[in-house]
Write a structure and sequence with these properties.
- The complex is a heterodimer of chains A (310) and B (300).
- By secondary structure, chain A is α/β, with parallel strands linked by helices.
- Chain A has one domain (2-308): TIM Barrel.
- Chain A has nine helices and ten strands.
- In chain A, strands 1-2-3-4-5-6-7-10 form an eight-stranded parallel β-barrel, surrounded by four helices.
- The longest helix of chain A is centred in the middle third of the chain and has 18 residues, at 121-138.
- The radius of gyration of chain A is 18 Å and the shape is globular.
- Chain B has 300 residues and is mainly alpha-helical.
- In chain B, 53% of the residues lie in helices and 10% in strands.
- The termini of chain B are far apart.
- The chains are: A alpha/beta (310), B mainly alpha (300).
């Protein structure tokens, strides 16, 4: 019998730490439950990003979230990267470390994108084996996230939620359920997002992600550049019911507004938890049919810290 | 084609979505065909279509994102160079760079490492520029390379090792050195001290661009050998203009030469008499210790 959240704490409502908010956070120390940090932005830093992270680590619970593990790639695991992750984790003591069910490149290249894997028995065996290695190296709770995707492969022999479920159970790892990604991928692949969420092993879900996206009518791009839309909040409510509530975090990676706006966005989650199970009005969230026109946006991840120079 | 193994599928996918000419050409490229002999019309044997998009349209989302994302990142690495060139021209250079030097690092912080080198490798020669009748100043590529080098070094100093958590050398400590020992000491320079020699005064240009409002055009400077020290205090990169003798002196000290050797080198290379140089030393070292250029010294 697996315990809810695999026994990990419900950290509450968190925000993704982003460099435009550094000064605000240092000045105000806002009442945020916890922060999620992009591992790659800090693991090699010997400058201001790491200096700021160390201060934040003294005051808030942290979770490390990576974009470069490439757990699904056929290339060998990058041991230098893994050692860097482990060293950062030793210093800032995250509640867990997460990355995505994806690959980022092959033949030693990195596209810096979260590329989709085919959902096959071969992929499953490959990823399960690598997750076990990663867990052995990191010696910390390891959690995998469902990415947004824009293609699926003819060779897949199972659907995404079956792949995710079997992966988590076979590798004995946690899941980071990105509710927005479920919505995005379901739209792009003509799937039912509620079925997706209801089919997952809920006791293995230790964290939620929420974010905004860009709807181009024929497809949705996961841009993390806006408020969370109401249909995603509806899915969040369902996921919350099914899991009993887990650490929830908002990602905002482009057109990043002031910190209070981002923080307030994740605080809207309070409307969907506890006894308040009716659909809440989120006010400024764009609706499902708020479609985008013109040039296509770039999906995340684009996590780059610019230099401060006088 | 749907039964490709994981490794082949990933090699095919990467070849297709990172091809500079797009999905169709990518699918029929030598690399992709060697793995999966498909025409551009047969992509659905590999990737499913959705109710609204074809396999090719779906793959194109990744292809567009690949270059757009990394070009955007390079633009953030070289904001002044991008402003100087204009977005279209800068993006063209970035597009070429990504084909020549695709990322091989887990971190975007290393994406721009070879960009200045790429500009150097692909710079038109003065002869070519003239033969094409282009309105190019003969040294324009050198200016761009200098500027790229400056911006890359600023970023590298920003997130590299610094002196914020260590004690640096102050002027009083140097004053304790006896005159007899003075020439024989070696200074340990700060790990964040970066000394640059450029063919154009790009540091001044960098300042002018940052101070100018959006509507003000800043003309690129004329060629002039220029010298700048980059360092970091309180986690912010600081830029210090240097004279030629100052630059030569600091380079020699950073190389581990004694002060006497460094003075001799600086006077010779910097075109300043020993006496004049020595007269300037108190004010120079006073400023450099305030800027925390040195962390320690040893008497040899």
């Amino acid at each position: 019998m697996t315990t809810p959240r695999l026994g990990h704490a419900d950290l509450g409502l968190g925000v993704g730490l982003r460099s435009p908010h550094y000064d605000y956070i240092l000045e105000h120390w806002p009442a945020v439950d916890w922060f999620e940090v992009i591992s790659e932005n800090y693991m090699d830093s010997q400058g201001r990003p790491r200096y700021i992270l160390d201060q934040i680590a003294e005051r808030y619970p942290l979770v490390m979230h990576g974009v470069s593990l490439s757990i699904g790639s056929s290339d060998p695991l990058d041991r230098e990267y893994l050692n860097g992750l482990k060293a950062l984790a030793k210093d800032i003591k995250p509640a867990w470390i997460s990355d995505h069910i994806c690959w980022t490149g092959i033949a030693a290249r990195n596209t810096h994108d979260l590329l989709p894997v085919p959902f096959t028995e071969q992929t499953l065996r490959h990823v399960v084996e690598r997750v076990r290695i990663v867990q052995d190296v990191l010696e910390r709770p390891f959690v995998l996230e469902n990415p947004s995707s824009y293609v699926q492969f003819q060779g897949s022999t199972m659907n995404e939620w079956e792949f995710v479920t079997r992966l988590a159970e076979d590798a004995d790892c946690g899941l980071l359920l990105d509710v927005n990604n479920v919505y995005v991928s379901s739209f792009n692949h003509d799937m039912d997002p509620e079925t997706f969420i209801r089919s997952l092993p809920h006791e293995r879900i230790v964290q939620f992600h929420l974010a905004g996206h860009s709807n181009y009518r024929t497809h949705i791009i996961d841009t993390h550049d806006n408020h969370v839309i109401d249909p995603v909040w509806d899915l969040y409510r369902i996921a919350h019911e099914l899991t009993g509530g887990v650490s929830t975090m908002l990602e905002w990676d482009a057109n990043i507004p002031a910190f209070p706006v981002v923080h307030n966005e994740v605080l809207k989650a309070k409307q969907f938890v506890g006894d308040h199970l009716l659909r809440a009005e989120t006010g400024d969230a764009p609706g499902d049919l708020d479609v985008q026109q013109g040039a296509q946006s770039v999906p995340h991840p684009l996590h780059f810290v610019s230099a401060d120079v006088e | 084609m749907s039964d490709l193994g994981l490794s082949d599928l990933q090699r095919w996918f990467q070849a297709v979505v990172t091809h500079p000419d797009g999905i169709s050409v990518g699918a029929e490229s030598e690399e992709a065909i060697a793995i999966a002999p498909l025409s551009r019309n047969e992509l659905e044997s590999m990737v499913t279509r959705s109710e609204k998009l074809s396999a090719q349209e779906r793959l194109s989302i990744y292809a567009q994102a690949y270059f757009a994302r990394l070009i955007e990142c390079l633009g953030e690495s070289f904001p002044v160079l991008k402003q100087t060139l204009g977005e279209e021209l800068f993006n063209g250079f970035a597009f070429g760079y990504l084909q020549q030097y695709p990322s091989r690092s887990y971190t975007l912080a290393r994406l721009a490492d070879k960009f200045a080198q790429f500009l150097h490798e692909t710079r038109p020669s003065n002869d070519e520029a003239t033969a094409d009748g282009e309105d190019l100043h003969p040294s324009w590529p050198d200016f761009l390379i200098d500027l790229a080098n400056l911006e890359w070094n600023i970023a590298d100093v920003f997130d590299g090792p610094g002196i914020e958590k260590i004690t640096t050398l102050n002027a009083e400590q140097l004053l304790d050195v006896t005159p007899e020992q003075w020439g024989a000491i070696r200074l340990q320079t700060a790990p964040c001290l970066r000394l640059m020699k450029t063919q154009f005064p790009v540091n001044g240009y960098f300042t002018a661009i940052r101070l100018a409002d959006n509507d003000t055009k800043v003309d690129p400077p004329s060629p002039e050998d220029s010298y700048v020290a980059l360092s970091r205090r309180e986690y912010i990169v600081r830029r210090h203009e240097l004279s030629r003798p100052q630059y030569e002196l600091l380079v020699a000290l950073q190389d581990g030469r004694t002060i006497a050797e460094a003075i001799e080198h600086a006077a010779l290379a910097g075109g300043m008499s020993d006496d004049d140089l020595i007269k300037n030393l108190p004010s120079w070292f006073g400023a450099w210790t305030r800027h925390q250029f040195f962390v320690s010294f040893e008497v040899t």
